[in-house]
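Case study.
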Amino acid sequence: MNNFDYKNPTKIIFGKGEISKIASEIPENSKVLMLYGGGSIKKNGIYEQVISALKDFDCVEFGGIPANPEYSVLMDALAVIKEQKIDFLLAVGGGSVIDGTKFLSSAALFEGDNPWDILDKKIATQKGMPFGTVLTLPATGSEMNSGAVITRKETKQKLVMGGPGLFPVFSILDPSVVASIPERQIANGLADSFTHVLEQYMTYPIEANLQDRFAESIMQTIIEVAPRILKDPSDYKAAANFMWSCTMALNGLIQKGVPTDWAIHMMGHELTALFGIDHARTLAILTGPHYNYNFENKKAKLAQYAERVWNVDGSLEEKAKAGIQKTTEFFNSIGIQTKLSEYTSDFEGTGKEVARRLAERGMNGLGEYGKLAPEDAQKIVESAY
Amino acid sequence: MNNFDYKNPTKIIFGKGEISKIASEIPENSKVLMLYGGGSIKKNGIYEQVISALKDFDCVEFGGIPANPEYSVLMDALAVIKEQKIDFLLAVGGGSVIDGTKFLSSAALFEGDNPWDILDKKIATQKGMPFGTVLTLPATGSEMNSGAVITRKETKQKLVMGGPGLFPVFSILDPSVVASIPERQIANGLADSFTHVLEQYMTYPIEANLQDRFAESIMQTIIEVAPRILKDPSDYKAAANFMWSCTMALNGLIQKGVPTDWAIHMMGHELTALFGIDHARTLAILTGPHYNYNFENKKAKLAQYAERVWNVDGSLEEKAKAGIQKTTEFFNSIGIQTKLSEYTSDFEGTGKEVARRLAERGMNGLGEYGKLAPEDAQKIVESAY
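After joint prediction, the assembly is written out as follows.
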């Protein structure tokens, strides 16, 4: 096990009917900016619950934060924060709204001239404007971590940011929200959280037994509840397990002391930037090809995964191969296609373009060994057509 | 899954050589009281490492905090805190030193006349004097939670305390310390952490799938590394898994959203108070009898545990019984005896005395159903002779 530091100060408030607790978690006399997305919260009752909980606060709203939170939209929100002298942010939404709010938390206190530098120059945020979240879409884990991914259409860029100042002060996780999530989004959440675990697990053995078993626990739980939630999203017990698994998949715990990969995400971000494919689906497209390409390096963990998570028997090689196969089958079983050509007919040359874009940003060594070059990424993407 | 709140702000600094980081975690210009136990840290090099890390601080020492931290000793330390105007506490030790430090953290800012009230009147600590810990003995999880157990010889009492103000600011976990721990203490740590998990798991099913699997993960890891550490406590990799498992066993995570028992601890505390038996060993004595006595209520979880943790097959009843048997065998395998008569010849009447003492303090309903009466405790203890 490698040395590590771990601190996660976010307060989680989990369960049915907990949204009303917002009021006691936001400092009195705060001027609140409530941020949300495309307006689904106005259809499923969450908007009313939040507004009612905020009735004693001076509150301004900003809706319309898109999936893959867009820099230009966030800059409009930043102008509102400055004009209205906002001092507390409340994200009501999924990963995109929360990630956008993290950018705003950082940008609101940023002392440089150009907030884009936070992303482009990879400036870690030590202190941001305090913010809370009401999670409406389990998937990204953003509700209990300090990272965010921001998109800029103008330059077709999708960049990561973060820092110890970007943990939510609190996050309210009410699994009843799952009942009103469209099937496509639920499937995305299942695939996204599952891949988050894989990125922190499918590397090489380092005798971090507990972290391995925790990662396997999350994947087993997601596999168990996936068919139940897809069949009936109002199955509260299944939804609660789904929601807590998504949070635990990316709140920092399982990555402590172990090598991590994240190459699937780095390549996947390019597919979203190029084609607008849902984030989770880009991960499902690339997981199998990435593991096949790096089979020798990853086969020990692939075999352990196949055995413990999928109850597969056989030689190390057989188990490792079955692990990849089972993963692809799992994505397909939740209705997620795993070939790029199933999403776009314009796929020719994508491998090369992804490689070019990674090289352009100096991402010349991805993966747990830091050795996956743009030409490797090209071959991986090409085998995903 | 039940609704829950979860927040754990302790910063964990984990790994070889990390003790030197103390200096950057304590606020500048703090006046520090360093607390420790019987002096083993002066033999294994930890004392020197801590003193060297603290060289730029004004630091006072207080040694001699005994196992089962004793109220009267702590009152001497409290006098030092007041006289010397201490404003930061540093616990260097195991659960007893850390628990004692938590009492001092609370008592130092307590506004009442009699600090004993914190324990006797169960006053939750909202704000304590800030403190850090350097863990020298993995077992209790006290390094990442906000609870403590304090003993008062005078009245043969062992009482619990806690509150959101009692999380350590930081805890340094260097697994190399395990190399110098006597075998008896290592065995205690293994049994203690294992039983902590059981107390939060062996109740009734509530479809908290992830919490169940996390609990099983910790137990599986402890079972895996136990023989390696007992054979060679300088096996760093095994020690690291042991240490992290002990912390995760009682940092609050696995108890969220599930029923918990804790009857074994409540009865066990009485055996320590009456006979001075090591805390962990009282748990090992009572676990089997408690599960046999409450077999009907616990058999579903006992069977799940036997199947997943011990790979036992059979009917529900068979698996459940095997789960109890395997647990007893595990304690024995690490050198821990599981009969009260193996610890004292003076055991006659103990069941009745434990029942009397529980009743005296109004503990009339223990366990996950709150229905285990003193007369039940009597029978459980009697079947542990």
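Observations recorded in class. The two ends of chain A are 37 Å apart (CA to CA). The longest helix of chain A spans residues 209-231. We will return to this complex in the next lecture.
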